[in-house]
Amino acid sequence: MAKNIGRQSVKFEKDIYIKCACATVGTKEGDGPLGKYFDRVLEDNLNGAVSWEEAESSIIKENVEMLMKKADMKNSEIDYIVSGDLLNQCCASTYGLRETEIPFLGVFGACSTMGEAMSIGSMIIESGAAQNVIAGASSHFCSAEKQFRFPLELGNQRPPTSTWTVTGAGAVVLTDKKENDAPIIEGITTGKIIDMGITDANNMGAAMAPAAVDLILNNFRDLGIDEDYYDLIITGDLGYVGKDITIKMLREKGYDISGKYTDCGIEIFDRDKQDTHSGGSGCACSAAVFSAYFYEKIKKGELKKVLFIPTGALMSPTSVQQGESIAGIAHGVMIRTK
After folding, report:
1. What is the phi/psi pair of residue 59, to 5°?
2. Element containing residue 18 per DSSP (H, E)
3. Calpha distance 128→77 (Å, rounded)
4. Element (H, E) at 170
């Protein structure tokens, strides 16, 4: 069975394999530096739907269908789907997955949802309650802007600290059945809610970076390791602003991760050519970048040990309007080659 390590970490006794992964993204993401790695790039961000919310649900639905084909599995072989998004009551996932007839656990960790879903899925498998679990997350630029900031029709200016919500979805199949060459989840570190008093909804990097720092420090302390244990540490969507804060805060604690650290929000867009300011964000940012890009690097052995840390800002439109601060969260997944 799983073993608690320190205050926040768990090491698994079973080898929990990431059997396969699949990612769908929008047009802007497809034009970015990782465009060739995604399983599907949309021709139209509405994806044939009549609303942005319906479009996001259709992206989730179709991405899971592609994932199942890649895994060569039937829906009846999946014990649970653990998935979430940014919309109220996780309705993008609910409507996108309602026809699967697979037991569903809807989760909300803001943009850290992919890490939360993979963590929960792994623990379910480790417990013996399941053999095969899908973990996924999604977001859509237009539906997120509409809900959290301003409708696109207003044409509001975006400050330099702002990030661009990724349109897309990413998902993986987790299993305890041996899969040759498949990456293995060896453990997790579950994050705490960290609130440093940030109130600017256009500066998500500053709001989330302290949570990422706290997660990394506790992962190191719980396991008695340091940055040298990993080939790469990958945060979810801190962007350029949050990445710089994370490096600086960790240096103050005696750790220098600058040589083996990147952020999915930086990887997915070309800052100079695509006008995304501080980088990418949204649930799909870490979900799609991991599923399409880093998963293959780990599978090929180019990266042997990775700490994958999707990050999230725990806010709602109401909390922002009422002047509440923006709390951050991060969930760490320890992944290695066989």
Report:
1. -65, -45
2. strand 9-25
3. 15
4. strand 168-175
pLDDT at residue 159 above 70? no
Specify burial of residue 15 (Cβ count, 10 A radius: 0-12, 13-18, 19+): middle
CA dihedral 9, 225, 280, 301 (to 10 degrees): -100
Which residues lie closer than 8 Å to 297 by C-beta, 6 or more apart?
A: 303
Beta strands in 28-102 (DSSP E): 40-41, 80-84
User: 3-class SS at 229?
Assistant: helix
Q: What is the pLDDT of residue 254?
A: 97
Q: Measuring CA to CA, which residue among 144, 149, 113 is closest to residue 320?
A: 149
- Average pLDDT of the segment spanning 119-134: 98
- Residues 137, 141: Cα–Cα separation, whole Å: 14
Domains of the chain with bracketed CATH: 1-338 (3.40.47.40)
Tens digits of residue pLDDT in 176-205: 999 989 999 999 999 999 999 988 777 888
SS3 category, 232:
strand
